# Entry
Amino acid sequence: MRPTRRALLCAGGIAVCAGCAAESEEDVDSGVVLEEDGIEATREESVDLTEGQTVTAAISGLGDGDRVLFTVGDGTGFVHREHIYEDGTDEYEVKESGQHSIQTIPERHENPMNEDVIVDVEIDISDP
# Structure
């Protein structure tokens, strides 16, 4: 089994607990943090972000009746929550520096509700 991003960050000495604040640009994540084809379940990444960075979710492979819930949380709650219904992108500009959680959740929103939703996802974070 592949180690999680959280495990790799912890092994490298980077704190990833909720509420941690980025202390310098060296502690801030950027670039592609998730790129996966054919996801059908929730994917979550914990990242250190700084004010002004942009988190971009690029979604492809959505069929009729499919959607992806794209959320960004800052430890106090969701600061961005958007349903994506068509192939494309959604962006969020970070308002406060610190630890953030990014989720993509593929789901059905039309009948038949029991069909699998399988999409391609890429999450990219701009440079600080």
Q: What stands out?
A: DSSP finds one helix and eight strands in the chain. Strands lie at 31-39, 43-49, 54-60, 66-73, 78-84, 88-93, 98-108, 119-125.
